[in-house]
Design a protein that fits this description.
The protein has a 21-stranded mixed beta sheet that branches. It is mostly beta strands. 7% of the residues lie in helices and 62% in strands. The chain contains 2 helices and 21 strands.
């Protein structure tokens, strides 16, 4: 009998582990989302404000979902998890916790994800100003944004996939972040460092690229002007498929590949390499221990 009771008790965590709980909550107005842990978030445009949660039964008492000011917070209070619950999610064969949230709101102006949180939107995001910040292993995918200004910050192992239409786009990536953008903007500033990888395609009138460390940036499309400020022996900027009228390259160690028609200014040192296509008028400020080649 004692063995039977112990066996039954041992099954309780497994039973809880296999069950899901749906929780629906209505909130006051918010236009910012901050999420962490393993939350998987889907945004659904609606005139009302609310969240529908689907979570593991064993985790429901430790899920934090609340609005403060104009911000919705989604998190799991991992420090409060009992040992028996923690054990359910440990080990090589242990599944990830189920922490799903469908968020309803009319408009989103800012998104911040950390840890292993993921985000997708079922509808285009329209805003005067939109900000997205990703850290840890956070992922935001299949987003479409139309705004006057857009600010993007990605670091560590985060991953962003975004279609964007805006007047001004500011992008900063570091760590091992990966960013894939289809863009249509008047002004683009891309600051790339660490081992971050950026793939950018579309139209941008004026582009400024800052490349450092061992970062890699690929740019395709059309524009009017391109400025590249590069440093670091292993940083790379491939804008060979981004056709511009004028370009200015100031680089120490960076490898740059461009396509320019009218004017090209070069200030190169410390092993920088520039490969260019087109027949621009070339103005040399400095070429020191560097190389310049034409396609």
């Amino acid at each position: 009998m004692k063995k039977l009771i112990m066996g039954t008790l041992a099954l309780v965590p497994l039973i809880l582990f296999g069950q899901r709980r749906d929780i629906e909550r209505d909130f006051s107005a918010f236009d910012v989302i901050i999420a962490s842990s393993n939350f998987s978030i889907t945004m659904n445009q609606d005139e009302n404000y609310g969240v529908k949660l689907t979570v593991d039964d064993a985790l429901q008492d430790y899920v934090q979902c609340y609005v403060r000011g104009n911000t919705l917070y989604l998190d799991l209070n991992e420090k409060s998890l009992p040992k028996e619950v923690r054990k359910l999610y440990r080990g090589k064969s242990a599944p990830d916790p189920v922490l799903n949230a469908v968020v309803y709101l009319p408009a989103l102006s800012a998104l911040s994800l950390t840890d292993e949180a993921t985000f997708t939107a079922l509808d285009p995001i329209e805003s005067d100003h939109f900000e997205v910040t990703l850290s840890g292993s956070a992922v935001a995918r299949n987003l479409s944004v139309d705004a006057a200004t857009v600010t993007i910050v990605c670091d560590k192992r985060s991953n962003l996939d975004l279609d964007v239409i805006c007047d001004e786009l500011n992008l900063k990536a570091s760590g091992n972040a990966k960013v894939n953008l289809d863009l249509d903007t008047k002004k683009l500033i891309a600051d790339n460092s660490g081992s971050a990888s950026l793939i950018l395609n579309g139209d941008a009138d004026d582009v400024e690229i800052i490349a450092a460390n061992s970062s890699a940036l690929t740019l395709g499309g059309t524009g009017f002007s391109l400025i590249v400020n590069g440093s670091g022996t292993f940083s790379k900027v491939d804008a060979s498929k981004f056709h511009v009228l004028t370009a200015s390259i100031a680089a120490s160690g960076t490898s740059v590949n461009i396509s320019v028609d009218d004017e090209l200014e070069l200030d190169l040192s410390k092993g920088a390499t520039v490969l260019y296509a087109g027949e621009p008028q070339v103005k040399i400020v400095r070429i020191e221990n560097s190389s310049v080649l034409r396609h």
